[in-house]
Amino acid sequence: MSDEIRFGTDGWRARIADGYTFANLRRVAAAAARYYRDECDGATRGIVIGHDQRFLAREMAEAAAEVVAAHGVPVHLTRAATPTPVISFSVGARGACGAINITASHNPPTDLGFKVRDERGAALAPAALAMLEARIPAPGEPVADAVPTLADAVADGRVQIFDPAPDYRAFVAERFDLGRIADAGLRVAYDPMWGAGIGWLGWLLGPDSRTQLLTIHGERNPSFPEMARPEPIPPNTDALSRHVRATGADIGIVNDGDADRVGAVDEHGNFINQLQVYALLAWWLLEIRGERGAIVKTLSTTSMLDVLGQIYDVPVHETGVGFKYVGPKMLETDAMIGGEESGGFAFRGLPERDGLMVALALMEMMLETGKSPSALIQTLYETVGAEWYYARDDVRFDPSARAAIQERLADAAPKELAGLAVTSIDRTDGHKFRLPDGGWLLIRFSGTEPLMRVYTETTHDHLVRPILDAGLALAGLGREGFASTDAGDGDSEGGAGAATTNPSGESAG
Asked: pTM, whole model, 2 decimals?
């Protein structure tokens, strides 16, 4: 068992019963309580605490609520498993100064996590996250003078259990014509990946919706069968691809374990990659909705956004990888959209990835244009003037070799990659080698495990694999032991169904 607590790009994650224990959870909760109390009037405004569908997530959320309450910070505790975007939205809706979210998002079923959000619902910026980490008590040190039971804290008002669903639905209804989408009669194959999104999309559309959600993996199962992890990319989306083909659905939509990320499958069952989805969302806002505003993207996402920025005369800002960079930049620039390569996208008004609203946006896009998903991709390519190709390799290596690999990459200054000239090198977050067609190669390391990610995007389909191989060669690694995320289909059956009840447990209305 490990008492070491390390924060990554979006909070703390660890293996349940190893690093992620009740004792360590209480230490991190104490640090969060002290941070919110000291930095944003938490003793008056309180914080929101929620959780996903993972093993022990509810129990951990309740333990965190007890510790936070012990520090004199009022707690708004969600009554049931809640998507991450709903928790972030609830911060502003409740006038709170931040949030704790017990979720491991798309990690394997053995893991649990601890996300923190600021008073706007955004990920804490790196400086603020460091301030919180500095407040973590040492192992064995008391986390508070006296920690109440949840029952006592509820009884004396320090913890209030609430239903976040009605306020969130009203927020979404201001941005989407839910009645029109519900009346459209679309057939949507939907996969909430056994996670926090279960029931929410159907509830947003209402019990009388003519748009059908043909749902698979729509009940709680913390072991996440049929997938290595609830991450909305192949091969985890293969079951959805098969489900689209089997049901003749118009589109397939998948949310990850905490419903802040999204994946899509076209009407033929072909996966639409995350970079294509982001470019489609930006095009939809600019061309169909006529909105204007900045676009915020990470180093690891699509250059099609730069082209769209030029076409529609809107600024495009590039950040480091992670929403702890994207969210603050969205707020700084009043961006209309922000997003990252992992499939997380946020709209103006809530600087948090929202897989539920993106699902609605994809449906609206089809209604407004009358086009299928595959036709929308072709329209996008016609707009940006080229077809773009993307792939990523995840490469594990011997931890003892990390320093040598990092040194090789720090010294790497290639003149060309796979026959394409390197026009510049950006080492803001990893090593990004820019190519003449607007394409790029990016090499980054995980902050928490011996894992290197190698990404590329290019207009040259036949050069995708050679560019990735060139990146591996720069690191001194071969193609052994990596997992590619550029493709994936499979064969198995999934059941169909629809969920239209209030996901927090009350009748729809």
From this structure: 0.91
In a shared domain, residues 221 and 345: yes
The 3-class SS string of 263-283 reads EEECCCCCEECHHHHHHHHHH
**Which residue has 């009840």 as its token pair?**
501
- Of 256, 286, 251, 297, which Cα lies nearest the Cα of 272? 251
Outline where DSSP puts E strands in 11-154: 11-15, 47-51, 75-78, 99-102, 111-117
Q: What distance in Å separates the CA atoms of residue 84 and residue 74, rounded to the nearest whole number?
A: 20
Residues 6 or more apart whose CB falls under 8 angstroms from that of 127 comprise none
- Full domain range(s) for residue 85: 7-162
User: Quick one: pLDDT at residue 489?
Assistant: 33
Coil/strand/helix, residue 459: coil
Distance CA 59, CA 65 (A): 10
Q: What's the CATH code of the domain at 436?
A: 3.30.310.50
Cα 21 from Cα 213, distance rounded (Å): 37
Per-residue 3-state assignment (H helix, E strand, C coil) for 191-240: ECCCCCCCCHHHHHHCCCCCCEEEECCCCCCCCCCCCCCCCCCCCCCHHH
Strands 295-298 vs 316-319: parallel, antiparallel or unpaired? parallel
Crossing angle of helices 165-173 and 84-93, in 10° steps, is 90
- Residues with Cβ within 8 Å of 120's Cβ and at least 6 positions away in sequence, in order, are 91, 92, 327, 331, 351
Where among 162, 188, 222 does a domain terminate?
162
Tally of domains within the chain: 3
Beta-bridged to residue 221, according to DSSP, are none
Q: What is the CA radius of gyration of the chain?
A: 22
Ranges of the chain whose pLDDT falls below 70: 1, 9, 448, 479-509
Residue where a domain terminates, one of 145, 162, 179: 162
Scanning the structure block, which residue is given the tokens 């609206």? 364
265-284 pLDDT, tens digit each = 999 999 999 999 999 999 99
